[in-house]
Amino acid sequence: MGKPVPVRFGILGCANIARKVSRAMNLAPNSTIVAIGSRSLEKAISFAKENGFPASAKAYGSYDAVLDDPDVDAVYIPLPTSLHVRWAVLAAQKKKHVLLDKPVALNVKELDLILEACESSGVQFMDATMWMHHPRTVKMKEFLSDPQKFRQVKAVHSVFSYVGGPEFLKNDIRVKPDLDALGALGDTGWYCTRAILWAADYQLPKTVTALPDAEFNEAGVILSCGASLRWEDGKIATFYCSFLANLTMDITILGTDGNLRVHDFVIPFQENNAPFYVTSNSRFVELSLGCDPSPGEHVIATELPQEALMVREFSSLVGSIKGLGSKPEKKWPEISRKTQVVLDAVKASIDKGFELVEVVF
Length: 361
Hints:
With about 350 residues, this protein is α/β, with parallel strands linked by helices. The protein folds into 2 domains: about 5-130, Rossmann fold (3-Layer(aba) Sandwich), CATH 3.40.50; about 130-305 and about 340-360, Dihydrodipicolinate Reductase, domain 2. Helices cover about 35% and strands about 25% of the residues. It is built from 10 helices and 18 strands. The strands form 3 sheets. Strands 7, 8, 9, 10, 11, 12, 13, 14, 17 and 18 form a 10-stranded mixed beta sheet that branches. Helix 5 (about 110-120) runs antiparallel to helix 10 (about 330-350). The chain is globular, with a radius of gyration of 21 Å. It starts with 6 loop residues before the first strand and ends with a strand. This is Gfo/Idh/MocA-like oxidoreductase N-terminal domain-containing protein.
């Protein structure tokens, strides 16, 4: 058997994150970039040149031209969230597989339009939550699933924050109500919510309550917020997301017999090595002068960065659909929808004055 034909990507827009993902497409062994579209042809040409696109890649002065290109199998969409429903639905209708940046939509109603379009066209949908594809994530789940070392999740706490700075807080699309109205909740809160659901094996919480004193800009966009989540079996979780606090990317998961901590879950501090820390059956030593055992560090190496592993996984699914007639993998749209449902509940709680909100799938 010969090498599989690479999945041919088109990119809609020249967002900064597209620089990272286009690098990933160049690194992944089963993908190639064939087109980039921008509202400005000149911008598309310079973006392709500056980011090492193949010489054969086409530059277009519109997004429609990318979707109309018969050489494009799949599209990566890093546009502002308010534009996702329009362009993702159109991409699916034109039989293009959809890799969509997060947050995937402004609310679950919009996401359902996207997912329905993908399903009816038989195309793969995946959100671009990169850490899900790092081999460390698999290893951490193995620990959480070990009845001897961890047993049962009791509580999860997640934080993702960074300082946006004056220019960001004034001009970035993530603080504009017409572009990314969810603000920090949609950007950093998406990761926190996904981490919590991942730890809970994607079992949705029964209720969500936003924590008081969320911070907003003058346009009413969320700059920082938090929430508590509660499950019927007694599990609890909290998260904090912010554009106003020092860079932090933590998950802490407490179990009956163990705990797990990771300090760089969104983007590893080192591209090729990613640590996490676990301990089981911890006890204070004599006179409570310390604890035993001390947390153990596990360092997971990877040859490809997590964004390239994401592209490789997505391209593998698309290749199976194209070459083998496989059906789209339903796990990814379901995980996206559950994440969006929880975000919607947090937003509803904030809008209702931090009242308790039931989570409805």
